[in-house]
Structure formats: structure tokens, C-alpha cells
Amino acid sequence: MNPSAPGASAEWRSHGALPFAAMFGYSVSVIHIYGINPYIIPVTAEFGWTRAQFTGAFTLAILIQALLAVPVGMLVDRFGSRKLGLAGVLMVCLAFTTLGTADGNLTNWYLLWGLITLVALPVQATVWTSAVATRFTASRGLAFAITLCGASIAQFAFPPLATKLIGLYGWKTAFFWHGLIWLAIVFPFVFFFFGGARDAKMSDNGGTEAPARALDGMRFGEGLRSTVYVRLLLASLFFTFTIVALNYQFMPILSGWGIAPTNAAWLASLIGLASIVGRLVTGYVIDHFRASYVGALVFLIPVIAVLLLLYGQGNALAPALIAIMLGLTLGAEVDVIVYLTTRFFGLRNFGALYGGLLAALSIGTATGPLAASMIFDGTGGYAPFFWLAIGLLILSSISLFTLPKPPQIQETTGA
User: Fold this and answer.
1) In whole angstroms, how far apart are CA 277 and each of 9, 214, 286, 329?
2) What is the mean pLDDT of the chain?
3) Superfamily of domain 12-407, CATH level 4
4) Does 317 score more than 50 pLDDT?
5) What is the CA radius of gyration of the chain?
6) Are 313 and 256 in contact (CB under 8 A)?
7) Domain ranges of the chain
8) Alpha-carbon distance 234 to 238, whole Å?
9) Which long-range contacts (CB under 8 A, 24 or more apart) does 371-375 make?
10) Using one digit for the tens of pLDDT, what is the confidence trace for 383-409?
11) 64: which DSSP letter?
């Protein structure tokens, strides 16, 4: 940490609303990830699809986003975050409503997901974290944690919201109201309070731009060649492949255990609630202790959940314990990875460098749920995937634990 940087209290006095606005904006970026699982069973039951067919469109969408993560990061580095975020929130929520027009034709389903793929590009994590990184140094870990709690709020709110709407109106109309309700909640926060140092105007200071940080750090090519970057890529890929798949399949797994959909939805929301606690604690701790060691420990916690999935069926407490274990680490990979990116590589090309890591996170997000679905379709259960998950969680932890101490990167303020 640069001793000349403003203290944490000064950062929060000047820009305290920014991480919370970014939090709501980030929740929109995962509406098609954490908001889709309540629809798996009703949609596949009505159309006679396999779970792999349902999930295939989701996988393709996330993979395309992964391919475009670096260009989006470059746009953020060049033009700032505010305009991208505002447009993205509006378009993603409206695009999500169109999933209710699915007619049973897989081509139609994939085209609808193609629309979501394109409009979700301006709400990727890079957009929200980049703005926050330009305003926070001393308290960056906690500011990132609050920002990334957007996914936790989504995980907490979406399963019961979608399940309630499906029960009242059916899944087609539920998609429509799900998207519009979230748009009405999120857009005002982003419009009035979101903007970083790269943006021409800040909505929370009457249009007067505060002094911006000098954005020092590695060049894009230099960062890509670093062995640290490779280890961060591997940790990102392995962890999200596992944790997102477990979350995505959580309600179907509980359904296979004989748990009613409403109860399964509330247990899934418990993941989101625990995730808020996990993110905030992780964010606070990485501001005070070596982040790579904290991340290595956090990445091992889901192993407990996986073992309960393997051996806990029939135990009344197991579903809640699994939800809590998954929640405490869900999204922690983003908190840790984005924090380590700023500390190892600086902010000069943060958008582009984090875009590459976001691509790895997205590839894991895309392929993990599909792999779990294909294993279920082929074997009638998830046990082979659970054993694979344990191995990948251990590898991701080792990737972080072996990182060196971050260098000292100056982040002074300037006109």
C-alpha cells in the first residue's frame, strides 16, 4: 500500500456510495447465471429437453462473453465505466424477459441466449470493479467486497423471487416480471451514484470531477507473460468450474433428494446470504493480511460442501450446511482475483489484464454447469463430478498459495 494514498476513512467519505451502486449494477451481470436455476425443471419438463440441452445455451453465451472480455476491458480502460454500465443494466434486464418467449425449439432458445450474450458485455465485472479501483486504495479489498456482493444479493433474491413468480404466473410470465422488477430496483442506483475516475462526469458530485489517481502499473503484454498471471488464470478457471456448477445444480440436486421446490429455493437463497458474509469478511481480511494466502484457504472451504453432497443425503442439516459452505466461498474467487490483479499489475491496464482473467472465470462458469449436466444425463447422478470438483478445488488453492509477495506499485493522485 502506498503510504501517500488517502486513508480508508477519506476514501469512504468521498466515494462511499460508489461501491454500493456498483454492487447493484454487478447483480445484473449474473441475472442469467444465478437467476436461471429455478427455471431448469419447469422448462425442461414442458419441452422434454435434457438438462444438457437447457444448459448448452447458457454455456455458449458465457464462452462468447469470455472471448470478448479483454476487448471490453480495453474499452473500460479507454472510455470509463459509467456509460457502459447504464446501457448494460437496461439491456440485460429487458433481454432476460425475452426468455419467456421460448417455444420449445432449441434454435429459438439459443437465439434468445445469443441476445443476452451481446447485451451482457457492458455489465461484466470489469466495468464495476474498474470504477471502484480508481477511487479506493487503502480500503480497496472492502470496497471490492461490497461491489461483488451484487452476485450474493442476486443469489439470495433470485431463487425465491423466480419460484414465487413461477408459482403465480407460470415460467413464461415469470421471466417477464423477473427482469422488469430487477430493472426497476437497480437502474436508479446506477444512474445517480455510479462513476469512476476515468468517467468524464460523476453523478454523485454534481458533475465536477475529483482528482484522479495516476494509473501506474504493468503494460498489457508484460502482465500476460508473467508466471503470476498464469497461476491466477488457473486458479480462476478451476475454482469457477467447480463452484458455479455446484450452485447451478443445487436446486436440481435437492429435488433429487426429495426436497420440495419452495424449500429448495429458500435453501438456495441461503447461499446468497452466506455469500454476503463471506465476501465482506474476505474483503476486510485481504486489506490486512496477505491476499494470496487468504484466497488459498477460502478456496478449500467448498471441499466440505462437496463431501456433504457425497455422503450427507438423508441428514436433515446437510442441505443447509452445504448452502452455507458454498455461500461462504461463492464469488470469493472474484474478490480475491480482482484484488490480486490490482496489487500485482496496478491500474494502468487493469481493464485489459483483468479481462483476461475474467475470460478464465467465464470459461469455468460456462463449462462447469454443462459438464455437471452431461455427467448427470449420462450416469443418472452427480458423484463423478463431485470427485472432479474436489481435485480442482485443491489445485486452485495451490495456485494461489504459491504466489510471491506483490510488488509495491505507486498509486499517487494527480490532476
Assistant:
1) 22, 33, 14, 10
2) 86
3) MFS general substrate transporter like domains (1.20.1250.20)
4) yes
5) 20
6) no
7) 12-407
8) 6
9) 371/241, 371/245, 372/245, 372/246, 372/248, 372/249, 373/50, 373/51, 373/52, 373/54, 373/55, 373/249, 374/52
10) 999 999 999 999 999 999 999 988 766
11) H
